[in-house]
Amino acid sequence: MRPSVLLVLALFVLEAAGSQVEHRLRVVLQPETSSLAVTDTITWPAPPETDPIFELHAGLDPQAMGGAKLEQLGRRSGAVPYERYRLKLARGQRRATLRYGGRLHHPLDESGEGVGRRRQATPGYIAGDGVYLSGTSGWVPALVPAQSLTFDLSVRVPDAWHAVSQGAAVEGDDGTIRWRERRPQFEILLVAGPYHVSRRPAGPVEAQVYLRERDPELAHRYLDATGEYLTLFSALMGDYPYDKFALVANFWESGYGMPSFTLLGPRVLRLPFIVDSAYPHEIVHNWWGNGVFVDYDEGNWSEGLTAYMADHLIAERRGDGAAYRRDQLQKYAGYVSGGRDFPLAAFTARHDGASQAIGYGKGLMLFHMLRLRLGDEVFLQGLRHLYRKHRFTRASFSDVRRAFEAVGDQQLADFFQAWVQRAGAPRLALGGVDAGTDEITVLLTQAGPGQPFPLRVPVVIRYGDGDVAEHRVSLSGDSTRVTLPLSGEPRCMAVDPRFDLFRRLLPGEIPVSLDTLLGADRLMLVTPSAAPASMRRAYDRLAEAWAATQPHVAVRADDELASLPEDQPVWLLGWENRFRSRLAGRLDGAADIAPGGVRLAGQTWSREDRSFVVTGSTADPPIAWLAADNPAAVPGLARKVPHYGKYGYLVFAGDAPDNLLKGQWPATDSPLVHRLDGRQGDCEVPPRSPLARLGARGHGSGREEHQ
Fold it and tell me: Residues 308, 309, 314, 315: what is their CA dihedral angle, to the nearest 10 degrees?
């Protein structure tokens, strides 16, 4: 995730490489007073035609040196207060020096991202536990209108501290830490704290790890991963654009991707799966977003492409590509309904479940469909062409389209028009199956908002001997009837069994999940009136917290209701909830809730010191139950449950609580599967070969340094 999208949208219009303003900054950080002192020498590529205007965080009191003068133009209030100045230069002057300093400290605050989702953030923070200064903090003069920039940054920090920024580390003077970036940037970031630093060459790049506690094993794991991923992604997309990639431990929970480094929270970075999930995602952002910048006028394409080339690729090489794509379609089905839908062209950044399902999910599905349309090699050629042509410049969705057209023999205007400019997704239907000895005829239809979408529908036939034949059927209208050849005794036929198309999933293709409830337009939370007082208070606080971040949430005690509503999803809270038995009829024997525990996944889990979340395995309407054994576990459930949205049941332990079990209900009754052998069940097809395979992680090579 990139933390400064608003800065890009509000301030910066990046110019072509070679026209950058250069900042030469000398910074002294004073964490004990939450302040800084800065000398910034700004050099323009040519004398400005008019006196430059810039904004700086209010209260930093800049002074112009060397004959230049400042005129204060006023204050712009908001979350970050800015003062605006005009810098009066002599005729022909293209360099000016500013000195400024003072207190700059915005305490961490919380912002919501839907039911139960809270995250901490700050534009700028200077204190004894660390320093975080983004472009939006106003710690560096921001020109209005802005020009892209390069910089040379020297930082003086307390003893045993290190400072991190973009670019390459160079030898500092008088004990300072120095970073230099000659590639065009749109902001200057500065992070500092008491770090233990590890370094290792990774080809022409240096892998770096900054941990707040000495942990050689953890550092080694990330150095290994960095070298492996840089090699893989460079081979796929082009040479890595920066001199380093650094993992930097933050002092609050975050997942930020910056040019040449990522800032991960202290608990997040220790989770074992992060090395193969969030971490490669942030590395790939250095190609898309931090290497090729986004022209937001046509929408943000970089999140979808980054998710496709990192998260999806890793799932695909494990053989889980189809499941990953189904999860994205499941999120779209769960979170995007009614007035929440919008086209990719309107996506700028994630702010809730619906925007994530569109910007990330629909975005990555667009690139997946494009890959299948062009073929793997042409698709990768298109990525490399886009990267070569637009590295360190802005690119729009139109530029993305032209890059793929330049390397292939297809015009893609209609494809991009349908999937970028239009909202919505089609629903497929299979009907009219007529199987003969040598051929089979089927009717394919689509329904959805507006005009039909241009589709190339995968139709897979599986034969009795295990062979599989895959066909691509063009469906550009409402329906098409197609006759396909048979080469043996067919066992079953499936339409889009690998979930290769962006579409609305059908009942039977997808199980009921937590996303079904968390993304609902209307939702009721039912609290247990007969629970002990401490548990009632805990459930009430959970319900209030979820209701505060989700529109149209009703909270009712169970003794206020004669029956449950039949027209909206319902959460039942607590062991004592008098409607708990309503869930039993929705479990179809897949689980059993008894007074002393819950039977799930073939195992009985004791109620003692455990928390449970269980959805009904059928949806009409969706229903879920959440219960804890003690009130201390409920706040953690409120935070954590929304992050398990694709699952149908969960078991946690302890006060934290810690997850012990997560699972999905089976979905084996797809209306897009037609059995030809009289049997029941799915029509299994083998996974597609991934774009690239990752080998087993080794121990790296080259000299490794730990400080």
Answer: 20
